[in-house]
Amino acid sequence: MKKFYCFLILFPVFSQFLFSQKKEEKTFSEIRKPYEKMAIDDIHAMPYVKLYIEKAKNENNFSKLIQGYRDARQFDYKNKMKYADSALTVSLQHGSQDDISKEYLSKGIIYYFYQKKFKLALNEYIKAYTHSKGSKDEYHRYKVLYHLGIVKSHLGYYDDAMKHFLECTSFYRSKLNENHHENEQFNYEKAYLNCLHQLTVLNRYLHHFAKSDSLSNLGYRITANNNDFVLEKSYFLKCIGISRFHHKDYVGAQDHLQKSLPNILKRNDFAWASVVYYYLGKTYEAQDNVNKAVGCYNKIDSIFNKHDFILPEVYKSYHYLIDHYKDKDLEKQLYYTNQLLKADSLISKDFPYLSLKLHKDFDRRTLMDAKEEIERSSTKKIVLAQILIASGSVVLGFFVVRYRRDQKIKKQYQLLQKRIAEGKYNMNDILREEMIELPVRKTSLTPEMTLEIKEKLQKFEQEQHFKKKGITQKSIALKLGTNSHYLSVYINEQKGVNFNKYMAELRINYITNLLNTNSKYLNYTIEALADECGIAARQNFSNLFFDINGIRPTDYIKNRKRELGIS
């Protein structure tokens, strides 16, 4: 009996020792095997990953520990950044330059694709690029170039981004027919498909529609029956759907866009999801299905509210929502107007920082690398390096100046349109003397004379006699049956401006209203517009338009056409 009790006591201890020994005997490869092919963000992989990390820590195996943190970052959606920071910390202490570069790149990818924090993402990409210099890991170097291309595409530098993606596509395609480990082969195929997708999008942005269609169809053929690339297939379905929309095949567009959506949503790629919703909304618009169009655009608004993120490509959906609720629901009209302003502010805020950072820390650094290489080869080529650096500085300066000018013009246009929309800018403004609080002055006009001139001047304005060229204060006074002195006194005291300013405002207000209400005038030359409102010289008209509206007539016409979708 005593032997039996001893057995009961010793058996659990022996079992624990036996199983723990068996557990320790597992290699890293054996631990990793169950989750190697699991989908990204599949949390079921984490028990194995944590076992892998624990084993690496116990053995002080830093290369395996880095790999363990990378695996955790891949599968634990909620804690990606925590594991990315852990991998970077170990890499900085014990890893190679390649390891450090990869971890900075991974952090950038999390910021960009998961959090849409573009500023933070670009900082990490630049660090990754710096540490990748001289690396023999070609796959990684091209991966860094790919993600920098993504940023350039986001900023609208489509030609520059195109060079990145063409270079990456060429490299990844060259690797497809080589013999690699199945994981490496998968990575090369995935990278190649991602490049194809970006080239498809860029060609569409550049209006190379035939090329874009060709690439999207190629990508779809490659992924159609391949379960390893269901997300990539969805991206190509999205592109085909957008193409069908542009070809006015609205039923086909809806079919492809709706098929693309489930996997994009499953991947939580809310950026491309918003694009799908936008073009679905556009197809419903084209078919006069107002409720479904509004529903799709509300999805974009939900994404904006949840993630504080919106793409320039889709924020015009707010124009439709504002127009839809105009005169129907003032509260919703105001809400969507505020959302549009918020979206515009968010997009504008990111652009200057990203643009300057990219040119300063990447493009300029690339030029500096070229300069150092040239200095090592021959002094003659230093001149070329200097030219490249100077050119880069000029280009950078050009982008900054152009961007600031465009933003200022855009702001002035929006302010002017807001005044017009609120009814604060029309021909009657000039007639409303009683609305203007002017300082009390001593006048030489009797009340009777003031009333008489007012009535005659109102008739002059309403009948638009100011459009006649060459009229003067004296000629108007004669027409009104008074003298130029009395007319001058009235205009100064009642309008608050001198005669020349008064005439300029009449004419510019008149032509501005025509441009805003009748699209045919948007195709007039500046000379024709000046002639229409009675101003003799083109430059004088342009200067007066700018003084009164805060924007040049050419810039106003350009923005108005863009708003109306007129080419």
Question: What would your notes on this structure say?
Answer:
- With 567 residues, the chain is mainly α.
- Among the domains are: 444-496, no CATH class; 512-566, no CATH class.
- The chain is 76% helix and 0% strand.
- It is built from 25 helices and no strands.
- The protein has helices spanning 2-24, 28-32, 46-58, 62-75, 80-94, 97-114, 118-132, 138-155, 158-175, 182-205, 209-223, 230-246, 250-266, 270-286, 290-307, 317-325, 330-377, 382-421, 447-462, 473-480, 484-495, 499-517, 526-532, 538-549, 553-564.
- Helix 8 crosses helix 17 (330-377), helix 12 (230-246) runs antiparallel to helix 13 (250-266) and helix 12 (230-246) packs parallel to helix 14.
- The chain is elongated, with a radius of gyration of 33 Å.
- The chain starts with a helix and ends with a helix.
- Residues 17-23 and 427-441 have low confidence and may be disordered.
